[in-house]
Amino acid sequence: MDVTTIIIGALAGIVLGFIIAKLLEKGKASRTIGNAKKEASSILKNARAEGENIKKDKIFQAKEKFLELKAEHEKVIINKDKKISEAEKRTRDKESQISGELSKNKNLNNQLSNKLKEVEHRREFYEKKQSELEKLHKSQVQQLEVISGLSAEDAKSQLLESLKETAKTDAMAYMQTTLEEAKLTAQQEARKIVINTIQRIGTEEAVENCVSVFNLESDDVKGRIIGREGRNIRALESATGVEIIVDDTPEAIILSCFDSVRREVARLSLHKLVTDGRIHPARIEEIVRKTEKQIEQEIVEVGKRTVIDLGIHGLHPELIKAVGRMKYRSSYGQNLLQHSREVAKLCGVMAAELGLNTKLAKRAGLLHDIGKVPNTEAEVETPHAILGMQWAEKHGEKPDVCNAIGAHHDEIEMKTLIAPVVQVCDAISGARPGARRQVLDSYIQRLKDLEDIAFGFGGVQKAYAIQAGRELRVIVESEKVSDDKAAQLSFEISQKIQTDMTYPGQVKVTVIRETRSVNVAK
Question: Which of 33, 329, 364, 468 has its CA 20 to 30 A from that of 487?
Fold first, then answer.
């Protein structure tokens, strides 16, 4: 009984414990569910609040974006309206301008028609007056014919015959008297003076040509002178204006130019470049500039030596420089300095024979052709005798010398005895056999005329006639002449040559426009 009671009590305790545990578990579960419900409602509440805030932010951002797009759209519309208004304004201005031009043209047309009517009226008036004058003249001639009994042609013929006979008789009488007096007094003495003068002056002939030969040590130098793709030889030709001919001639290069100064500059420049060994376009331009300065100094030295040799003192420095420039000029193929020295010596001898001032005669003989070496292109148009006289007057020469210079080609009246002496000596120097060549001078003049035609156009910096006048190379200023203008300039120069000059064959006109950009690194 005790065991059964214990078991029953134990079972009852277990059942009671189980029931209590279940009750406790159920209460805990209900509390957990309640807490979960509270937490879920709190989360839902927070989520709803956050959703509302996000919704409000998105709506606000959408409104801002809409306002921004609306403002940009309004700006675009305003700019378009502004452009449209400006276009309308320009159109109105163009319309007003066109209307103004039309009214102006209409007025000009009216004025022109009025002028034409006036000119036509005047022409009719003048024609009427002309016919009246002709009628009046015919009536006067008819009256004179009736009064004189001769026609107008008969009267004119008789008057001309009478004047011819009278003038011929007087001229023959004067010529006979003058010739007889001259034969009696001057013939023998003049022959004596001229023969003595020619015999006492002996000079070598100096005939200039247009070609110089530059000798080389070996043919290897030719390639360096030509340069890569010919750039060196082109730079040298462009800087000096001399045509450089490199052919199969062994150890020689030919320099061709009608201007002996340019030819000498090219020869000396080539000598310096070959000696130095550095041959490139920049070096070529530098050497050419230095050589030109050297030639200028040499011209002054030649002038000084010439006046010292002839015993001429007190000559102005500019005239001395002009005398030096004569070395590089020719007259009909005769070297101008040699010719002037010869004329000076002839004048001195002839003046001594005639009892005149030998120093003034020498001075006038030396300076008689200085007008052939002008300083500027504008002075080329003036006759060389007049130009030389103007220079002499400008630099303080005596009137006798100035008159002799200006009158040695009879362009002004001879006022002193020295003037005919200079004229005769000039003729003696140029008339001896071999002294002059007319063909060479006309050829050189043609080349100079070619260059002068190019200088007559605007923007031309340099002009060189090369290849015996078959090509004219023109270098223009890039700032003043564009590429299109260069082509047009070439055409205009060729047309000018074609209309103004006479020449055999064809003349090629090449216009060169070079642009350089130079900066200095410091």
Answer: 468
